[in-house]
Amino acid sequence: MSSVRVHRVVEGPAAGPVVVFSNSIGSDHRMWEPQVAPLTERGFRVVRYDTRGHGSSPVPPGPYELADLGGDVLGLLDDLGVERAHFVGLSLGGMTGMWLGVHAAERFASLTLCCTSALLGPPEMWADRARLVRAEGTGAVAEASVGRWVTPGYAQAHPDQVAYLREMVTAQPDEGYAGCCEVIERMDLTGDLPKISVPTLVIAGTDDPSTPAEPHGRVIADGIPGARLEVVASAAHLGSYEQPDEFTRLILERITEEQ
């Protein structure tokens, strides 16, 4: 396990309970913008960071493993002097959260795992995507990525937001994106789920083509003792962005339970 100093944005009262937000592959901390004000207004200290290889975080030489991504979060907490935090992650961020729940449970008061999977195959798909991005850049996958992130109805109603998200994907470093594809290619957390003792909420979207609730969300919720699954209507893979009110409500419910 290695650790890099990831880029972070910290908002809210210094003494408030800390909530760490972890982004999906192809995005950065900006994907969580809709959640910031509702949480800081409730007294939480919101820490958003860019996963290694994304946004303004370093792009260290690969290969990366999920343990490296988890180690980056532990380094972030140490950097900020935070002993224990709530963790919210979507897709790759949720995978990171599951690793943390297995290997660093004492550092987390709760986990909220959004639109994610414990085993997201086939591996060849991720290897092919890494090759494509290395050859042609993240712009080559931007349109398809956003097509999975939001529903067609949202895309039609919010063309400016779709353009913003497409630009976000294109802005990600090619090698960082490819390295994280390979993390997902090699990942299998299914056998580790029963080891997670952190109170956990799993959120899925009814229209998520990447990690649908059945089977992905259900497998996680059934595998983690005491976890529950909530399914949000009219939400694709970036459900926290498309349906921010409902995702934020569920996140607040989870983290407030563990105050």
UniProtKB/TrEMBL annotation:
Record bears the keyword 4Fe-4S: no
Gene Ontology MF terms: 3-oxoadipate enol-lactonase activity
Pfam short name (any one): Abhydrolase_1
EC number: 3.1.1.24
AB hydrolase-1 domain: residues covered: 17-243
UniProt KW keywords: Hydrolase
Gene3D superfamilies: alpha/beta hydrolase
InterPro entries xrefs: AB_hydrolase, AB_hydrolase_1, AB_hydrolase_fold, Fimbrial_membr_usher_CS, PcaD/CatD
Protein name from the UniProt record: 3-oxoadipate enol-lactonase
Lineage: Bacteria, Bacillati, Actinomycetota, Actinomycetes, Pseudonocardiales
Gene name per UniProt: pcaD
